[in-house]
Predict the structure.
Amino acid sequence: MPGAAPTPPPLWAAYFAYPAYRKKNDKVNSYQERLQGCMTYSMNGKAPPLGSPELVAFAAYSYWLGMGALMDKYGVPGPVPELDDEELLKGGKGDDFPLPDAIVRALPVDERGKLPGRGYPLVEKPTGGYSPQRGETVYRQHCQLCHGADGQGYASAGIPTLPPLWGPDSFNWGAGMHRVNTAAYFIHENMPLGKSIQLTPQQAWDVAAYINSRERPQDPRFDGSVEKLRQRYHQHTGYYGQSVDGGPVLGAKAYPNFPPQQDSGD
Ligand code: HEC
């Protein structure tokens, strides 16, 4: 899972990268606001309110992982110090965040957002570009076994175990994963699960283009106009507001946000 392996973006590295400015909502985000973003966009769900026990619990877990790793690395003995909820929710990048002296000396505030494992290793865009059609072939060979021929993944006893990659239950048009470049980096490093770094950069970009050129739930920042939203928030490598191969404009028939939980069966 993304929190546990060294290369996909781990929770503990993110913890020490906040508070930080995000273009996504044009303000400085605390760690709890960043977590809300994961739930609103990547999970296409409804985030618990600021200060809620759920966000405190996620923040505490992230802090405990990250702080434990830093204490090991810089030779600070003892258990991870406890923090009050308010401090936990801000994230570890603040000037006044309580850290043992040995860690403050080794890791100035500006360096804290760059802990190893943060973000994805970049995979250069192929010089000849990328193609959803070629990506479909890659998908059939390397992905559909787990994510389904129809991209809808699988659930076991009603709980999704293999995530859908497009359609009503997938990440939405506001999630970072809808960008072709971001998905290509993630896929190249982590997929097919258990056999990572199997695809060539070309295959990773092509298959990222394939899954991201299909309809999915609406960008939660949508306020009635796909074109306006495209201009304001989608000036990047993605297909929102565009037509692929003469198909419908993507985003125009997007699925709803916060869908009710459905029993998706098999
Ligand atoms: C062996 C099963 C398996 C195979 C094969 C596989 N995946 Fe996955 N994939 C998973 C699981 C499990 C997850 C969720 C856990 C995770 O994100 O690490 C996942 C997550 C993902 C996600 C993130 C979804 C999200 O909601 O953020 C993407 C994108 C993805 N896979 C793409 C691919 C692509 C493209 C391929 C083919 C190159 C592929 N996967 C092959 C099992 C698999």
User: Anything to note?
Assistant: Residues 132-233 form a domain with the Cytochrome Bc1 Complex; Chain D, domain 2 fold (CATH 1.10.760.10).
